[in-house]
Predict the structure.
Amino acid sequence: MEARSVEEPKAVEDLSEAEARAELEMLAQRLGRANRAYHTEDAPEISDADYDALRRRNAAIEARFPALKRADSASDQVGAALADGFGKVAHRIAMLSLENAFEDGDVADFDTRVRSFLNHPGGLRYTAEPKIDGLSLSLRYETGRLLQAATRGDGATGENVTANALTIADIPQHIADAPEIMEIRGEVYMSHADFAALNTRQAESGEKTFANPRNAAAGSLRQLDATITASRPLKFFAYAWGELSAPLSDTQFGAIQRLADMGFQTNPLTRLCDGPAQMLAQYHTIGAERAGLGYDIDGVVYKVDDLALQARLGFRSTTPRWAIAHKFPAELAWTWLEAIDIQVGRTGALSPVARLTPVTVGGVVVSNATLHNEDYIHGRNSAGEEIRGGKDIRIGDFVQVYRAGDVIPKLADVDLSKRPVGAAPYLFPEACPECSSPAIRAPGDSVRRCTGGLICPAQGVERLKHFVSRGGFDIEGLGAKQVEMFYHDDLLPVKTPADIFTLEARDTANPLQSLKNRDGFGDTSVRKLWAAIEERRTIGFERFLFALGIRDVGEVAARDLARHYHSWDALSQAIDLAYPAALRQIAADEAEADERAAAADSGRRAQPAKIRAAIWEAGPPPPEALAAWNELLSIDGIGAVLAVSLVTALAPGGHERVAVDALVTQLREITPPAARASASPVAGLTVVFTGTLEKMTRAEAKARAEALGAKVAGSVSAKTDLLVAGPGAGSKLKEAAKLNIRTLDEDGWLALIAGEAGSQTEKDDT
């Protein structure tokens, strides 16, 4: 059979909000399983290419829909939980992961982002080095002697594997000319020849063989018995550093050369490159030599060479801005579609999943793939245009599984010549498979949603899972499995978050059916569960907000809201005040949509709504409502869509608000966000930037302000403390003058944050 062309995957920019939410939910589940299997169990379930595809898709969706970011998003995770048996080592400087690139154009985009952030119009130099497929290791030297070795772990805390690292010949134990304190980072790996020999020995002795060199290296380093590690042929490449008492060099390339002079093995394929063209040339050179290297690599890492510029670029939450990993591409395969299942997510979205005859793609067995939504199944995109040449997908079809760059495993093509006789078009359900409530597809939405709300078991369970998830209340001993059990339990049901905090009292009141007497529990586990729940009666405000699972309020928005309002009382009062203005916003948005549709003659006709008519008849909201609404919108990163979602979800007297108020009564304290950089001259101030900044980009200015403890707002209000105005400042500058708000030019701002208040130049604007 001839190879068929693969249709381009649906671009992230074409996803609707509903599609994005449903896909992020699926990605969080798959990436969580993959992280645990790869980092903690050293037994990956999917290939690196699959994992990279999942993470990139996840990051791209989050970039377009930041409000949808989940607590369990892989974007905020580095590594996974530590295995039992090893001591813990807190990394003084976090061991972060890298942003990924998959296309040549991504490399040019990376260079553009770097230069834009730095406001650097000219070319920059980068290093390019092979990305070793092994296990990250940190080595701490003091006065030239190796004192400690630790795995990356979750990025903040690793496993103490010092005794094991001392057995690796590539790792120097004493260095004559090292700085007083020096933490060197690199990758432990195993060559292909050594891996084959090890597996032969393992098989001959009747012991477990390894799936690939990476698993073998990771499993060998993480042995509780260091003599086993010593018997394994491990190698180490050094390529980075953490804490240093003195710099190794002014440049990345110079620092790598310094490491080689100290006796570390560094990769000989590392090169200096002047811009994207040379970076790509080295990528293709390394790719051509990949098969003959004798060890596994899965891409090329580019880093800004100038270390001073690296320092300016800084870090995101889990990745540096000054580096990116350009990964090698993945593969395709054909198999049979056995069934299509519908999964119902926390927001009620009905997500179709393909169940496949298992097929190996790139060394990994794939048995499931996402089908996104009913349009995708029927061969259309969100705009109604044909994909896959208009071919629909039917149960029984021979389908192509596509895994590359920015897509999770999905069905990319259909071989119509092998379609079974009588295969019927797939009919997407119009009722929820969990609760039988109508599943409605709103105009403009590509996803059908269950209308059952809290009565739908899938939504109720998923909302509670979100509540106890890592970024939420994170109650030890109350994970997804336990949530499922309690939700369906007749004796100790948990249907709302508040029910979690009454569990112990209800259990005590029913001693004959005590939880400790059930399978899977006991005195110790129950005591630990009660203690963990009790501990979470005190919770950080931003975690509390995120845990509520309000649509569009992700971790970033929850953090911004918490930093602005500081307490639940303040936020809830603001919501109560702003509610009439939010309703007015909804009515205005609907009226505008009707006008646009009529002007375009799209066939959509305005349908009079009693609620909207009542809102208009009520007239403008009172001044206090407008003031509260405008304050909410002034928070940098909070737009009208998110604000409407927040205020309507927590509207006074509504079901959600009643549930949240019940939860609050069970809590001891909701603590405000920790103060940051309290010693800085701008800590606690609300700052607005306007006009053109000439010495730094707006992104860099905002990042520096927040790092110093300031709050950055998007508009000027009576609560603004400081306006930084560059050339071209307009209405914000006039508003600040009207409100008598302190205003600085860019030089004054830089002097202020440098602590040089005496040299700042305040502008006397009128």
In short: The longest helix spans residues 568-599. The mean pLDDT is 82. Residues 594 and 600 are 10 Å apart (CA to CA).
